[in-house]
Amino acid sequence: MDTAYTLKNGEKVAIRPLEDTKEDTTAMLEFINSIRAEDAKLSNFGPPLTFEQESAWLRDIVDQSKDGKKLYYAAFDEKRAIAVIGITKKGDRSMHVGVFGISIDKKYRGKGLGAYLMENILKESARALTITHVELVCFANNTPAYKLYKKMGFQEVGRIPEKILYRGDLIDEIIMIKRL
Ligand SMILES: CC(C)(COP(=O)(O)OP(=O)(O)OC[C@H]1O[C@@H](n2cnc3c(N)ncnc32)[C@H](O)[C@@H]1OP(=O)(O)O)[C@@H](O)C(=O)NCCC(=O)NCCS
User: Exposure winner among 85, 140, 143, 172, fewest CB in 10 A?
Assistant: First the structure.
């Protein structure tokens, strides 16, 4: 993954792995709490997280990354974190499979960043995590995410009916998989 990406509007953003520092914890806390406040179409939702909760999350990412079990990147503009993307290796008889997740700040969506980050993390993940498959889930009403995943070569393999309660509606959860 390159350490910088130029968005479709010409703006440059920095990309790097997360670090177990106070600065990254603060930046990621602000980022995730803005996604939660937005009530975005992903599982992570609810009241704001605390610094301690975010710090524990970040420490886990950094530790597991060293062990080849997670591969995570974040993107930053001049002031703040604007995206996070990650793959977590499963264990036991699914140790060849990684679980994917992505989130982009509202202001930075539709500018090519999601596709860039995803294409590159998928390329790196085979070697970094020793995996051959990546799986993910997506709310059936999350059209931008579904289209991005199809564009990246993911295949829909199933739906769990009404698994998701989103703003009072029951939504199917779509399961998708890609062979690397
Ligand atoms: C889903 C998400 C990651 C897409 O990232 P993005 O940076 O906005 O996407 P890009 O600009 O790179 O677009 C890549 C592709 O995604 C799809 N896409 C993105 N925005 C779209 C939209 N508003 N409507 C339809 N398709 C869209 C398109 O296929 C697009 O390719 P194209 O430009 O050739 O049409 C981003 O919208 C996001 O973080 N949403 C909130 C959190 C979330 O839903 N995470 C995923 C949970 S499963």
Answer: 143
Whether this prediction's pTM lies above 0.85 is answered by: yes
Q: For the structural domain made of 4-129, what CATH number should be given?
A: 3.40.630.30
- Residue 12 CA to ligand 1 center (angstroms) comes to 18
How many residues are given for the chain? Answer: 180
CB atoms within 10 A of CB 4: 11
Secondary structure element (H or E) that encloses residue 117, with its range: helix 113-129
Q: State the chain's mean pLDDT as an integer.
A: 97
Provide the residue ranges of all domains of the chain, joining segments of one domain with +.
4-129
Look at residues 89, 91, 86, 90 and name the one whose alpha carbon lies nearest to residue 71: 86
Residue of minimum CA distance from atom 4 in ligand 1 = 114
Atom of ligand 1 minimally distant from the CA of 137 = 48
Task: Give Cα 42 to chain centroid, integer Å.
Answer: 10
Q: How far is the CA of 110 from the centre of ligand 1 (A)?
A: 6
Distance, C-alpha 5 to centroid of its chain? 17
Instruction: Locate the ligand 1 atom nearest the alpha carbon of residue 143 and give its number.
Output: 25
| Residues in contact with ligand 1 (CB, 6 Å cut-off) | 40-42, 102-104, 109-115, 138, 142-145, 147-148, 151
Q: For the segment 126-176, what is each residue's pLDDT rounded down to a tens digit?
A: 999 999 999 999 999 999 999 999 999 999 999 999 999 999 999 999 999
